[in-house]
User: What shape does this take?
Amino acid sequence: MGKSDLLLELYSNLSTTGALSFSSKALVNKMLSHAEFKGAKLVVELGGGDGSITEGIVDRLDPDAELLVFEISKSFCDSMEKLFPQKNVRIINDSAENIAKYLDGRKVDYVLSSLPFSFIAQEVKNQILTQSKVALNQNGFFIQICYSYMLKTLFKKYFDHVNTSFTLKNLPPAFVMVCR
Ligand SMILES: C[S@@+](CC[C@H](N)C(=O)[O-])C[C@H]1O[C@@H](n2cnc3c(N)ncnc32)[C@H](O)[C@@H]1O
Assistant: This one.
C-alpha cells in the first residue's frame, strides 16, 4: 500500500480513524520520549494505522521484547504486516477493547495509543481503558496522542496521574498524555 492509498483509507473511514493526517515524526518522537524501552518486555500499540508510531517503537525495542499492535482496519493491518515482518511484532486485526484476549494474563510495560477517543462509543472506551489499566504492570504507563486537551478528564477517571505535553510539529498540533 503506497502513501496515497494509506491516506485514502484514512479519509474514507473518518468516523473510525478520526484524523486528517498520520502522526508526524516529531510527534512520534515526543510520544516515545516518555517511554524507557530498555528492559521493556511487552509493549502494546492501539490504532497502528500506517505504522508511523509502530516504526518508532520497533526502532527502540529490545530484541527479546514483543510488540502487539491492534488495528481495526484490515487494509492497514495488511500494509503493516508487510512493513513489519519481524517475529516479535504481532499485528492484530481486532478492536482494542479485546486486549485481554491476546495477553494470556501477561503484564504490559507500555500501552501506546493513537485511538480517536472522541469518536469511540462510551462502552468501548470504558472497555479499552479498563483493560489497559489492568494489563499494565506496576511501573507501566498508558501514553496517548490526542488533539483535544479535554480528553484529560476521560483519562483521569482511569489513571491516578495524567501528565501532558504538547507539540506544534504535527497537523493538527497534538497533546501527549502520559498516564499511570
Ligand atoms: C488517528 S489514527 C492513528 C494512526 C497512526 N497510529 C498515527 O499515529 O498516525 C487512529 C487509528 O486507530 C484505528 N482504530 C480506531 N478504533 C479502533 C479500535 N477500537 N481498535 C483498534 N484500532 C482502532 C483506526 O483505524 C486508525 O488507524
